[in-house]
Input
Amino acid sequence: GPGGPGGPGGPGGPGGANADPTDDPKFPRSFQMIPAYVIQDNQVISRPLNYTLEGEIGPQAARGIRFTTQEKFINGIVVRGNSNYTISDAYFKLDGQGVNDFEGIGAAVMATDDAELTVENSYIETNGVIRPCTACGGRATLHINNCQVYGNSGPFPDYYDPANPIKGPGMMEPPAGLFLGGTIRTHLSVGTTKTYYKDSHIESDSWAALSTDNGRDLYLQADNCEVVVRNVGYGVYADGGCNVVLNDCRFQTATHGGILAGDFTAKFTGCTMRSGKYDWMCHDLAGGADSAAPLEVRGSDCQADEACLYIKSHNIHADIENSTLTSPKYAVHAIVNDDPDANAMPEGTVPYGNKLYLTGSTINGDIVNDDIRSMALVLENSTVNGAIQGAYVELKGAKWLATKDSSVCLVHAAAIDGIDAPRGVTISAAVGEGTTLQGSYDLPSGGKLIVS
Output
């Protein structure tokens, strides 16, 4: 067992210091092999070791408990089978290493199989590598209401070499291509699950606050929550096959508000985004060409130091309504993903491109397309203060003040109404569909529009 001869971290034999304990057949590869409170079909079928518990964990509910441990490879409560279970007014503090985040080994609270678990009015804190506060797997449903959850990274075990990471089970750190840090995902959803956070505080020191992985029509929703990541990491992740919905949430993240990957869907309504780098970073793990992932942003106030929307070789169909995007650099920036591990499109492929629809919104910052993909902007009753480069632009009752030289293709432009630039700034425009402008135009604030 853990700490014993030949066990993980124990002396001598497979699994000793500086050896790979996953070679040991005793190494825990599923929560069936580790001590935990397991509630299956509303019956308590096992109990952990090396923990302190105040109160009682029953077959239907755990109320007012206090669960603490410093033992690695231990869970708090795992609810599985067809259980319908409630945890309320509880306190969890789990220190020490977990081992398999995909299966939730090390999580304080986990729902899996077809279980439905509600956690309310509770405090959950974990400290250690692969130590989720909450996890949801299988086909389970998890509700977290009026809770405080804090995930804090821990040191790598002595057998782990970041330069040559062990491939499974699970991950001890973020994939290298994300350029993140830390060893903790405060919440992790996998499989075909539904998770609902409400009126809660979700915080991580790094890597992730709300994470999804290996999803198959997975659903994750947070309502009226505070999402905080103190160091390099993301507030929410929407992996391929995952649907994330954030309503009235307040994000405060050192680097990434959200990372959106592959064939995701994401909706942000009434949110406040504050990020040290990107509000949203989008990338396509498969290097796809013809799929377009939908991002909806409605009634939200978004600020980022580098870019509000950062797109790395992805096709994004963004619908931004009644929102504000503000950045001293880029409101939107699309690039070719230069990560050497990224999958490239086959030669000769014509990608779908990026299409952004802005309605009743205000954009403060540049919109720049440095990707080989096309970018189309439809601005309806919106205002853009910044340069636009490398995009098709259509204005419908909109205003664009180009603060720097810009290069666009104007679509359905019959007059210069709504287009402006200060003295010394030139907008170079190609003629797109429905555009009748031709030649050089003096703009109201002294700049130039040259259409050719």
